[in-house]
């Protein structure tokens, strides 16, 4: 009489090796220009999600909450009340 010791293996890979193989790309958020730098119109100052920083003088906010300069000048980060911050661009006299 012959005895077979047959081991059957799974037909699919284990859950950890196949379901963990994805990751999203970095969003490259943050401050792109710093206080004291000279900004030209259209320069992106801050990329953010939500309004961590608010627009001030000569700064507008895009639909994805990006802050950008609308005039040439020097960048300044300022307080706006007790708990908010804003970014302004002040013209530089030569």
Widest sheet: strand ordering: 1-3-6-5
- Give the N-terminus to C-terminus distance in angstroms: 103 Å
Number of strands: 8
Gyration radius, in Å = 27 Å
Kindly provide the name of the CATH class of the domain at 30-90.
Mainly Beta
The proportion of residues in beta strands is 25-35%
* Biggest beta sheet attributes: 4 strands, antiparallel
List keywords for this structure.
94 residues; mainly beta; OB fold (Dihydrolipoamide Acetyltransferase, E2P); four-stranded antiparallel sheet; four-stranded mixed sheet; 5% helix; 34% strand; rod-shaped; structural constituent of ribosome; Ribosomal_bL27; ribosomal protein; Ribosomal_bL27_CS; ribonucleoprotein
Structure write-up:
- This protein has 94 residues and is mainly beta.
- It has a domain at 30-90: RNA polymerase II/Efflux pump adaptor protein, barrel-sandwich hybrid domain (OB fold (Dihydrolipoamide Acetyltransferase, E2P), Beta Barrel), CATH 2.40.50.100.
- It has one helix spanning 15-19; strands at 30-31, 38-39, 44-47, 53-55, 59-61, 67-69, 73-80, 84-90.
- The strands form 2 sheets. The chain has a 4-stranded antiparallel β-sheet, with no helix packed on it. A 4-stranded mixed β-sheet has the order 2-7-8-4, with no helix packed on it.
- The longest helix has 5 residues, at 15-19.
- The mean pLDDT is 89.
- GO terms for molecular function: structural constituent of ribosome.
- Belongs to the bacterial ribosomal protein bL27 family.
């Amino acid at each position: 009489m012959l005895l077979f010791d047959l081991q059957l293996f799974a037909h699919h890979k284990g859950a950890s090796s196949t379901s963990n193989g994805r990751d999203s790309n970095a969003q490259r958020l943050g401050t792109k220009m710093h206080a004291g730098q000279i900004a030209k119109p259209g320069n992106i100052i801050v990329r953010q999600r939500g309004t961590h920083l608010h627009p001030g003088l000569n700064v507008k906010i895009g639909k994805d909450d990006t802050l950008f300069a609308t005039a040439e000048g020097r960048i300044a980060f300022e307080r706006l009340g007790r708990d908010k911050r804003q970014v302004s661009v002040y013209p530089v006299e030569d």
